[in-house]
Design brief:
Helices cover 30% and strands 26% of the residues. The chain is α/β, with parallel strands linked by helices. Helix 1 packs across helix 8. One of its GO terms (biological process) is fatty acid metabolic process.
């Protein structure tokens, strides 16, 4: 298996059909393939050899989509970087992955010196967009004037992709995905989520996220059409659906709420959409009812997954998205194992527990990652005896439906993004006025969960909630920063081992809930 086979197949099957639509610009699969191969030759000229990294920082675009395949064609490894991170976090990740080439779009041109400040060997910088930088080449120049190179023979378990996910401390982890991981996941999406060459998929999640990258690879293998937006914005999303007749979308429930509540919603025709996959959090029943009432042409599919499993683990098909029927009993579940994935619920020793018993979700299959980049100990902690231990607590019923009830790892999911409490706490502790702090997830009607901090100031120090939030905004991405802060005069509760008892702190916020996650 190799990622480039998806590109070759699409070019062979549908050369004159649209591959990408971006800001009104359409490129056919033949054009997409030619530009990717030329860019690959140019990347080799810039120093990309087998296993060398190409880091990409920017909003979604047709150029960005080509770069994934150009890098693989050249034998390189793509490292998409999270545009929602702070410059400090991005510089740390760039220093960690040590790219030979760094591609940035217009929004990041002015930050290049800061981004590369901690890199021992400065990468070659390529700009992607309208702005040009003296002494650098543009991606469009690479894609139009580069000399095509032979397809790399890297395949199978060779590294193809590094996707950074939040760390339990201040250090993010680079999830290493192979060619086999990516193609296996693409086949799973086609088989489980009904992609075809007639699918017109609207990309709104960032390509730096597996919810953005995985459908890009899958739909390329299916030879469909990519309709690309730089990022999710309700008005632009609805306008693009209507104009380009998108048939398939992927949203987190928060996005759907924002669409339905937008003043333009009653005036837009969204009936071209036939399938909407949602994930990152369960769909509240009230929202399901509203979608079914106001958007009856939309068929809903829930997807549950994680970056370490190349995005997809379980799926809940459309037929279970019903109300007041026997099938509706499955609506609170995350569905069953996707095609090609094994799922079981295990105890602390890794042994499968009886049906209906809460344990940890463990996953096995060809889409499970190689490990974490340069982090062998963290890799060994989650990959045990051939199984990926996800850190999500759940139970499985007699028909294989998995219902998630809590998280064993200290993680918050807010608006579809993973936030690790330890990382936020590290940022808060950089303020010398802080004596103790704990970061927890609490229920939130819009975002699913909200990042909430409880902070104890040092004796004699004056500290406000606004101080804590402003301090965090300077160090970490805004979506990770606390949205609410409680300043406590009392010490935080400790266990007998001296650890802060977060369950005690979380309990009042989750009282009356049927499960401890949203």
């Amino acid at each position: 298996m190799r990622l480039t086979q998806a590109l070759s197949r699409a070019v062979q099957h549908r050369p004159t059909e649209p591959a990408t639509i971006f800001h009104g610009r359409t490129r056919t699969w033949e054009e997409f393939g030619t530009r990717s191969r030329r860019a690959a030759g140019a990347l080799q000229r810039l120093g990309i050899t087998d296993g060398e990294r190409v880091a990409i920082l920017g909003g979604n675009s047709d150029d960005y989509a080509e770069l994934f395949f150009a890098t693989a064609w050249a034998g390189g490894v793509t490292v998409p970087l999270n545009t929602r991170w702070s410059v400090v976090e991005l510089a740390r990740s760039i220093a960690d992955c040590r790219p030979s080439v760094l591609v940035v779009d217009d929004a990041w041109v002015d930050e290049i010196e800061l981004l590369c400040a901690d890199v021992a060997d400065r990468p070659v910088v390529v700009t992607m967009g309208e702005r040009e930088l003296a002494g650098t080449e543009t991606y469009d120049h690479l894609a139009t004037t580069g000399v095509e190179c032979p397809e790399s023979d890297r395949s199978g378990d060779d590294l193809a992709f590094i996707c950074y996910t939040g760390g339990t401390t201040s250090s993010a982890r680079g999830v290493m995905l192979s060619h086999s991981n990516l193609i296996s996941c693409a086949l799973m999406w086609i088989g489980t989520l009904d992609f075809s060459d007639e699918t017109r998929f609207l990309h709104t999640p960032g390509f730096f996220h597996m919810a953005g990258a995985a459908p890009l690879f899958a739909l390329t293998l299916a030879a469909g059409t990519h309709i690309i937006l730089p990022k999710f914005e309700p008005a632009a999303t609805m306008e693009t659906i209507e104009k380009e007749q998108a048939t398939y979308c992927l949203f987190v429930p928060t996005m759907i709420t924002m669409l339905l509540n937008h003043p333009d919603f009653p005036h837009r025709d969204l009936t071209s959409v036939k399938t909407v996959e949602y994930g990152a959090s369960p769909m509240p029943e009230a929202l399901v009812r509203r979608v079914m009432r106001e958007l009856p042409s939309w068929n809903l599919i829930q997807g549950y997954g994680c970056t370490e499993a190349t995005a997809l683990v379980t799926a809940l098909p459309t037929r279970y998205h019903v109300l007041d029927q026997p099938e509706s009993s499955k609506l609170r579940s995350a569905g069953r194992a996707a095609a090609g994935i094994e799922v079981r619920i295990v105890d602390l020793d890794g042994e499968e527990v009886p049906r209906g018993t809460v344990g940890e979700i463990a996953v096995r299959g060809p889409a499970v990652m190689l490990g974490y980049w340069d982090k062998p100990e963290e890799t060994a902690a989650v990959l045990r005896n051939g199984w990926l231990h996800t850190g999500d607590a759940a139970f499985m019923d007699d028909e294989g439906f998995v219902t998630i009830v809590d998280r064993l790892k200290d993680m918050i999911v807010t608006g579809g993004e993973n936030v690790y409490s330890g990382e936020v706490e590290q940022a808060i502790y950089h303020d010398l006025r802080v004596a103790e702090c704990a970061v927890i997830g609490i229920p939130d009607g819009q975002w699913g969960e909200r990042v909430h901090a409880i902070v104890v100031p040092r004796p004699g120090a004056t500290l406000t909630a606004e101080d804590v939030i402003a301090h965090c905004n300077a160090l970490i991405g805004s979506y990770k920063c606390p949205k609410s802060v409680e300043i406590s005069a009392e010490p935080l509760p400790l266990s007998g081992a001296g650890k802060i008892m977060k369950q005690t702190l979380r309990a009042p916020f989750w009282e009356g809930q049927t499960r401890a996650v949203h």
